């Protein structure tokens, strides 16, 4: 422990000209920009220095929200904890967000899964279950008794006659679109609905189901731009 | 090497055994060497429908267990020289035979016969797996009822996983007047849902019940519309392009002539 303290003192002397932590005030509170080229130890030292000594007068007073910008530095959850521990020493500083421009491969993979777009050519028959992470485009029918589940949106270019569950891990923004909407049952996130409840059976033509205030509704495809305009840019 | 055709449906009571019996007989009448295999162990009745019950000595389970040779268990139908039956056991249950044993038996039969027609039990459990094990082709039988079509759909899904071509569909016991009034699913509705090739539509016909009780396959009756339908199915299986019979019993020229001469 003592050895790094010595090193850090030395570093501090060399780099006093350029600060490792730049603090800026915004409308939302304080933003801490962390240098991403120095070592993590240097960063901790400078942060500690600023919090405990040099900037004490600015950093006291009423509750202030703090956002940490880590730049291109990857911080493990433990390292993030170290940073927040230092900041929390000041009772009035509340960590709001911790942002980095980089993520780990695992996170990237999970993120990619979330935004994958699968295309399936298949007739989902009675008793068959099709389950996917992300969005799903099914070129084929879903027959009565067949089940399709995806964490994202589900688009069916065929007859939807069975069970379809979009956003099954809780995405309430997910939609279900089908060329022919005649389902046994539809589910989006936790909401279960069947024809004849909030919406009637297909009037023919392409339609989509979505959630509005926890209620499932079905609309003609040409309403989609009004109801989910973000769908086009959200992914891919 | 012959072809193994499994006749299956998922749901019970839609006419698997009737279809097996009539299809087997029709193929035999068309000159093919046919062996029918009843895989409904514990609930056999293909032998009853064929009127061969009293001739059973050995059965499928005996063959599988090796207590007799395959040849000893085969019952030759005396009415049709090309037709044989391998009956199921009535005392055991479905687990008495394994899919591997079934495959072996059907392979042996295929060496000797042109067609091996396998009558599948209802359900999707071991009995079904046994029946499809040796088959190269499947015929799915359904009736124009929602529940039967649903089960047929399930069965087609299961058959897709087997190493065989697209199953073919027989729609059984269609009642034209109900379809006409919209009280029964029509052929189009069923095909739209199941999306497989149709190989025949069999009208509901009292002759079928009568002949089953007499132990004579309905195809032997030339009056019966169902018999014509079954014979057409057999011809289609042999690759002939036979148009579908019109379902409506329309007063065609033939009937008018018959009426004119005072028949019926």
TrEMBL record, chain B:
Key words, A-Z: ATP-binding, Cell cycle, Cell division, Nucleotide-binding, Septation
Domain CobQ/CobB/MinD/ParA nucleotide binding: 5-217
SUPFAM superfamilies: P-loop containing nucleoside triphosphate hydrolases
Keyword Nucleotide-binding: yes
Pfam families the UniProt entry points to: CbiA
Superkingdom, taxonomy of origin: Bacteria
Kinase as UniProt keyword: no
GO cellular component labels: cytoplasmic side of plasma membrane; cytosol
Regions crossing the membrane: none
Residues at which ATP binds: 11-18
UniProt cross-references to InterPro entries, sorted A to Z: CobQ/CobB/MinD/ParA_Nub-bd_dom (IPR002586), MinD (IPR010223), MinD_FleN (IPR025501), P-loop_NTPase (IPR027417), ParA/MinD_ATPase (IPR050625)
Gene3D superfamilies named among the record's database cross-references: P-loop containing nucleotide triphosphate hydrolases
Annotated GO biological process: division septum assembly; negative regulation of cell division
PANTHER family registered for this protein in UniProt: SEPTUM SITE-DETERMINING PROTEIN MIND HOMOLOG, CHLOROPLASTIC, SEPTUM SITE-DETERMINING PROTEIN MIND HOMOLOG, CHLOROPLASTIC-RELATED
Similarity remark: Belongs to the ParA family. MinD subfamily.
Protein's recorded name: Septum site-determining protein MinD
Organism: Brevibacillus borstelensis AK1
